[in-house]
Amino acid sequence: MTIPTTRLGRTGLTVSRLCLGTMTFGFQTDEETSRVILDKAAAAGVNFLDTADVYPLGGGLPTAGRTEEIVGRWLKGKRDRFIVATKCVGRVGPNEWDQGASRKHILDAIDASLRRLGTDYVDLYQLHSDDRDTPIDETLEALDVVVRSGKARYIGVSNYLAYRLARALGRADVRGLTRFVSVQPRYALLFREIERELLPLAQEEGLGVIPYNPLAGGFLTGKHRRGEPTPGTRFTLGTAASNYQQRYWNERAFATVEKLQNIVAEAGQSLTTVAVAWVLANPAITSAIIGASRPDQLDATLAAGELALDPELKARLDEATAEFRRGDSPR
User: Fold this and answer.
1) What would you report as the CA-atom Rg of the chain, rounded to the nearest whole angstrom?
2) What single-letter DSSP state applies at residue 229?
3) Residues 211/185, Cβ–Cβ less than 8 Å
4) For the chain, does the N or the C end have fewer beta carbons within 10 angstroms?
């Protein structure tokens, strides 16, 4: 298997169309299993890795940074073969300044991430969320220092509303500061709100789009049943459980998944594979972030990298999930 590659927005950087998300590493998944997952993705042609300083998901403050350490140990001796992205803004320490997008925190956070990853630079440094308490100019100035110092090649954002991202791009242009080149939003058949404003903005501004949750936290695998959330999944995972339950554990989502399963079954396809392929079929999308807590879970998602979604099937999926374009969820 060879995953196709593409350019990240208008940059000259080439990345695989599937990106391996690592947020399960170090809590839901032990280090030995994490390394097998990384090996399997790399063997399939995935050259793009995404992590964050607050990972692993669900572990909370006591485990913050553990995922970057696991990724860093795996990267030793092969750093030059991979595009590495990480993120800051989330709380990583006991002090009030151990979070956010202030100059102090960004400059501290990049050094800490580089130390854990065992590298001199990251290819893409992203703001994990929008810090409304810090002036955007201060944040952009700090990120400009990070890029000019060689600690990051490019910068991006995650979980930004379209108008906030547009304002940040405008301020960077006016000030002559390093510009964001990508955005990492939530996007799946069960969450399509970004199609209204964020994706058109990204296309107009030439931004790469790297969506997470293409399987809606595993909900679109069809393995869940009504009732209590499934043990051992993100819906019961430490500090992340309530967030995932709020997003997807509801009757509307269950009914839609059943409808999607019937549509995909008629086409002789796997819903897991098709759900990721549907995300990739949007021309605004650069690379979809796939994750796993077990190596075998990658089989169906990696297959999406080679699946050309039939236009008629895509149209049926679009119609079945049209209501998920409506709403006002912040992330």
Assistant:
1) 19
2) P
3) yes
4) N
Residue 271 tokens read as: 């819903």
Q: Which of 131, 176, 139 is closest to 155 using CA atoms?
A: 139
pLDDT over 90 at 230, yes or no: no
Question: How many CA atoms lie less than 13 Å away from 302 in the CB half-sphere?
Answer: 21
Helix boundaries (H) for the chain: 31-43, 66-75, 103-117, 136-148, 162-175, 198-205, 241-248, 251-266, 271-281, 298-303, 311-320
* pLDDT band with cut points at 50, 70 and 90 for residue 30: very high
Cis? peptide before 330, omega within 30° of 0: no
Helix (H, G, I), strand (E, B) or coil at 168: helix
A 10 A CB-CB count for 297 gives 19
**183, 160 Cβ separation under 8 angstroms:** yes
- The tokens for 61 are 């403050």
Task: Scan for tokens 């400009």, then name that residue.
Answer: 144
Is pTM beyond 0.85 here?
yes
Q: Which of 55, 125, 154, 248 is catalytic?
A: 55
Span 113-128, pLDDT tens digits: 999 999 999 999 999 9
Q: In this structure, what are the phi and psi dihedrals at residue 133, rounded to the nearest 5 degrees?
A: -85, -10
Between 319 and 235, the higher pLDDT residue: 319
55 given a catalytic annotation: yes
Band the pLDDT of 309: cuts 50, 70, 90: very high
- Confidence class for position 1, pLDDT limits 50, 70, 90: low
Name the one residue in this structure whose structure tokens are 């000030």.
175
User: Do the strands 5-7 and 14-16 form a parallel or antiparallel pair, or are they unpaired?
Assistant: antiparallel
Farthest-apart Cα atoms in the chain, separation:
55
Which letter does DSSP use for residue 198 in this model? H
Residue closest to 246 by CA, chosen among 235, 260, 232? 235
The two beta strands, 122-127 and 83-88, are parallel
Residue 229 has which token pair? Answer: 């959330």
